[in-house]
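Run log // design_07
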């Protein structure tokens, strides 16, 4: 059961990776719902820095997807064997923090609940982060 959860979570992270890859290379579908509206006003979603940040997050999500299934693969990387549990704990912590939010624009406890991003964050993004954190914790520890 725990391995199945890790494979499901890894697949979810692969889907998120593909979406970010698409956005990093110019895709626009769904982008408006993925960025808080306050960033639209300053044109941040079209700036080069935002594209680099999106590409960086693509790499991060892909790394997490691999780390989730790493113990079930036949690779043997000594430094990763020693630090895998610590990395998983860090990932779980980051996901929990994302679910809780910054108390302003993201997470369950955000103040600004207007707009498409805020609605999607409350319905999808924050619950998904909470699910990923809790199920990964259950499967790893």
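design_07 sequence
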């Amino acid at each position: 059961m725990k391995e199945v959860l890790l494979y499901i979570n890894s697949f979810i992270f692969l889907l998120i990776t593909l979406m970010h890859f698409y956005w990093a290379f110019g895709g626009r579908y769904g982008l408006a719902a993925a960025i808080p509206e306050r960033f639209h006003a300053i044109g941040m979603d079209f700036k080069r820095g935002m594209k680099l940040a999106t590409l960086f997050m693509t790499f991060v999500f892909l790394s997490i997807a691999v780390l989730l299934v790493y113990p079930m693969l036949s690779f043997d990387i000594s430094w990763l064997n020693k630090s895998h549990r610590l990395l998983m704990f860090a990932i779980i912590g980051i996901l929990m923090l994302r679910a809780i939010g910054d108390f302003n624009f993201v997470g369950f406890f955000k103040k600004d609940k207007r707009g498409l991003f805020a609605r999607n964050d409350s319905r999808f993004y924050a619950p998904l982060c909470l699910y990923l954190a809790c199920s990964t914790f259950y499967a790893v520890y």
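Helices lie at 2-24, 31-34, 37-41, 48-69, 78-100, 116-140.
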